[in-house]
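Posting for a labmate who doesn't have an account.
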Amino acid sequence: MTTYVLVPGAWKGSWSFEAVVPLLEQAGHTVHALTLTGLRPDDDDATVATANLDSHADDVVRLLDRAHVTDATLVGHSYAGMVITAAADRADGRISRLVHLDAYMPRDGESCWSATNEHFREVFANGATDTGYSVRPPEGGDPRRRPHPLASFLQTIRLTGAAAQVPRREFVYCSGWEDRTPFAALRARLDADPEWQVHDLPTGHDAMHEDPEAVAALMLDPGAPHTSTPAPRRSDLDGAPAVTDVHGRAGRELRRR
């Protein structure tokens, strides 16, 4: 049995994995889906203003501690590639697999800001004009999204090299949004690295909602070929319709066994 820890991308909570969690559980695994600090519905302004990349990495490590997890598969979507890399670096060998789901894979000294492209730097900068400490979600998309702590996009990651010792490291490239993806160069770099396994999915960025079966299949059997016919695109950046949280909630950590 595998223990999966699922970490959502920017502006999102545990609900972003709502269609994937049951598929992993039906296969007999334990699943924890997180809502990061500053993204919870009851977080006050001070919490949002002070949350950063360290806060989010600590969220993951605290879950490992609380649930007594010693052999975890960390899955991070988009921004959360920063988070799972930082968490793996400080998890004292408790991570056996990293899955970067169309997600950043930073090197020491990089930030989400430095690793992304001009399109998303503009999204971050324009979205921070309301408060100066949080980035409002892009227009359209799921109404459960919340302003994201700006500091988490700007803080550089400091790595000791421990994350590079995780035995299995995988990158999933979503090829259905080539006009804006910041991950094309990263895919090429990791595809040339024998220590990484690269998968391609023909979905937009929000693969968990567009094709949850294909995402779950990659998590369950990464060695199998993965071809899929994605549902009509529902990327948060393209004005996705609302979907319902598996517990009817909009936040908090989703812990299911």
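Reply:
Got it, the structure tokens are right above this. The chain has one domain: 3-256.
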